[in-house]
Amino acid sequence: MEQDKLQRGQFTFYASYLNAVEALPKSRRYEALFGILRYGLYGEEPELGGGAVGVFEAVRPHLESGRAKAAYRLRKNAEAAELPPTVHPSVRQ
Q: How far apart are CA 90 and CA 3, in angstroms?
């Protein structure tokens, strides 16, 4: 898949992500957590090892869904900004 260029200022981080990360050995938690964070915000593919791979792969579909929704909203907002202002039919000129 082509790297996603969408950089976001926020994304939804669910408690289940934290629960999955906490189930990892302490030596793998940092890489799993930062892999999730950097993918969620910047679309960067993490280089993970051990159990961190499994945690990330379980979370990835949710992160991709959120990124797709954010990209859609950005496109729709940009399209709406290009439209000329309209007057509601009930408003008389």
A: 47
Which is nearest to 6 in space by CA: 48, 44, 37, 36?
44
- For residue 93, give both structure tokens: 């000129």
**What's at 21, amino acid-wise?**
V
* Gyration radius of the chain's alpha carbons: 19
The number of helices, as runs of H, and strands, as runs of E, in the chain is: 3, 0
DSSP assignment of 23-50: TS-HHHHHHHHHHHHHHHHH-PPP---T
- Please give the Cα distance from 18 to 22 (Å, whole number): 6
CA neighbor of 36 nearest in space, from 2, 69, 22: 22
pLDDT for the residue numbered 67: 86
- Confidence at residue 45, expressed as pLDDT on a 0 to 100 scale: 94
